[in-house]
Design a protein that fits this description.
- This protein has two domains: 176 residues, Rossmann fold, CATH 3.40.50.1980; 120 residues, Nitrogenase molybdenum iron protein domain (Rossmann fold).
- The chain is globular, with a radius of gyration of 22 Å.
- The chain has ten helices and eight strands.
- The protein has 317 residues and is an alpha/beta fold.
- The longest helix is centred in the middle third of the chain and has 25 residues.
- The termini are far apart.
């Protein structure tokens, strides 16, 4: 091909990108992945390595059901090759509108670029019916499975499959990265299971219903939530009843997620003698939790410290 023609085609391709978001064919181009949450972003980077460019819509401090929209999200979505989401309608309050605004055909529901990380996971607490009075943010069951690292491994598998489907020429590299990360995660899971032995049977409450999968995996007792129902603020009657039942059952920990205000959890902790602890639900939720493994480390450290503080306080009485 003549040099002038090559130059002309390059200019046309560049114009297409700038004006219409059409990608330039290039062997060195990275796979552009948008994730809804930071744990999914961490997994994608681990599997994709240098072959992916990952952007998470959430930073770690937001409510997973309502990530605030930013004007910058639309062009990011327009350029995405893959969109990775939690599933079970976790993102129902913001993702459908964002997908409609983006007009990117590659990542729409039903397309190969729409990657539901929950594939193969059986949800807990699927409601028989949904309405505002029953809570409207868990319509297809509890979507917070990612806090259970064994279920997170299923999400990792789904992300791996999507990357291989999109770029089969890189399958071996993706497989090496996935296997290396899963080996590291499996080693941490074995470590965490030993660390949490002192927490077996420990009762705790949280603000939102984030923790049933985590509690079941590690042997804690998930006693209840400060919210009346998922997405519904607590009433005075509910708080009074929760305090009374926590006292009767010796619930030792009040877990506040950083997405929610501290006032009511602190009030409940003070009136029950439980220990208040703030712990993240996704990487970046609190300092020093930038990766999934760092987050799980911090959750377990925080729960162990909270339980020890409760035991110490009650031993002095």
């Amino acid at each position: 091909m003549k040099p002038k023609l090559i130059h002309l085609l390059s200019i046309v391709s560049l114009a297409g990108v700038l004006l219409y978001g059409i990608p330039i064919p290039a062997h060195a181009a990275k796979i552009r992945v948008v994730t809804t949450l930071t744990d999914l972003a961490d997994f994608t980077r681990e599997i994709g390595g240098d072959l992916v460019e990952v952007h998470s819509l959430a930073t770690g401090v937001e409510d997973t059901h309502g990530v605030p929209m930013k004007p910058s999200f639309v062009p990011i979505m327009n350029r995405a090759d893959l969109l990775v989401l939690v599933g079970f309608d976790c993102e129902h309050a913001f993702l459908p509108a964002l997908l409609e605004a983006s007009k990117n055909p590659r990542i729409q529901l039903g397309k190969s670029g729409y990657v539901d990380a929950s594939k193969g996971i059986v949800p807990k607490d699927v409601p028989k019916s949904t309405d505002h009075y029953q809570g409207d943010v868990h319509p297809y069951g509890n979507p917070h499975y990612m806090l259970d690292p064994m279920l997170a491994e299923k999400a990792i598998g789904n992300i791996y499959n999507a990357l291989v489907e999109f770029a089969p020429q890189h399958k071996e590299e993706f497989k090496r990265n996935r296997d290396a990360y899963l080996a590291k995660l499996d080693a941490k899971i074995a470590e965490w299971k030993k660390e949490v032995l002192p927490l077996k049977g420990v009762k705790f409450v949280s603000y939102h219903e984030h923790w049933p999968y985590f509690a079941e995996r590690f042997g804690l007792v998930y006693f209840g939530t400060i919210e009346l129902k998922p997405g519904i603020d607590p009433t005075s009657r509910h708080i009074e009843d929760l305090i009374a039942s926590m006292k009767a059952e010796h619930v030792s920990i009040v877990l506040r997620e950083p997405q929610f205000p501290e006032k009511v959890p602190r009030q409940i902790a003070e009136q029950t003698g439980a220990t208040l602890v703030t712990l993240p639900i996704m990487p970046g939720g609190i300092p020093n939790t930038e990766t999934y493994i760092m987050m799980e480390d911090e959750i377990i450290r925080g729960l162990l410290a909270a339980e020890q503080a409760w035991k110490t306080a009650h031993a002095m009485k």
